[in-house]
Amino acid sequence: MTTHNAAHVAEMMSKIKSVRFPMFTWQDEHGHLLSQPMTKEDVDDDGGIWFFTSTMTSLWDCIAHRPQVNLAFSDPDNSLYVSVSGSAERVVDRELIRSKWNAGAQAWFPAGPDDPHAVLLRVDPHSAEYWDSNDSKMVRLFAMAKAAVTGTTPDMDSEHRTLKL
User: Fold this and answer.
1) 131 Cβ partners below 8 Å, 6+ apart?
2) Predicted confidence band at 124 (pLDDT cuts at 50, 70, 90)?
3) Phi and psi for 51 in degrees, rounded to 5?
4) pLDDT at 133
5) What does the mean pLDDT of the chain come to?
6) What pLDDT was estimated at residue 1?
7) pLDDT tens for residues 3-50?
8) What does the alpha-carbon distance between residue 144 and residue 158 come to, in Å, rounded to a whole number?
9) What angle do CA 128, 129, 130 make, to 5 degrees?
């Protein structure tokens, strides 16, 4: 486990805390990018982002050989977008699986936390980049409409930042 910049980890966690389902992108055996929605189960104190998956998926197989991944979090209603890049680690630890077990995991693994195919992925983030608007949805819509009419770019109170973790 890597030790990260605590302030940057806290900032990343504050941005992604309310987004439950990021798109998880990885590379297959040919280097092609694949993505699927995943359920964020937990974020640990060092910024590690946890997911349940199955040993029967191509994601599980591919991570073993190409651990570099990207997580795309979005909350369009609040104009928040976060991209997290990092390395995925395959975790088979029944005690840890039991500690993170929940109704969502039970739905995918009816045999429970002792199902041999129920495993965890932990993404160790390297960096996070986010775009976050401080304006209300109505203000953003007005700014875009005004820009379209005047031929200018929208004037919005937004923040864009890259965090090196």
Assistant:
1) 79, 80, 81, 82, 158, 159, 160
2) very high
3) -140, 150
4) 77
5) 89
6) 54
7) 789 999 999 999 999 999 999 999 999 999 999 999 999 999 999 999
8) 13
9) 125
Span 88-111, pLDDT tens digits: 999 999 999 999 999 999 999 999
| Full DSSP string of the chain | -----HHHHHHHHHHHTT----EEEEE-TTS-EEEEE----EE-TT--EEEEEETTSHHHHHHHH--EEEEEEEEGGGTEEEEEEEEEEEE--HHHHHHH--HHHHHH-TT-TT-TTEEEEEEEEEEEEEEEE-S-HHHHHHHHHHHHHHTS-----EEEEEEE-
- CATH says 6-164 is which class? mainly beta
Residues with Cβ < 8 Å from 23, sequence gap 6 or more? 35, 36, 37, 38, 71, 72
Would you state the torsion angle of the CA atoms of residues 149, 150, 152, 153, taken in this order, to the nearest 10 degrees? -40
The C-alpha atoms of residue 69 and residue 48 are separated, in whole angstroms, by 13
Give domain limits for the chain: 6-164
With tokens 């929940």, the residue in question is: 102
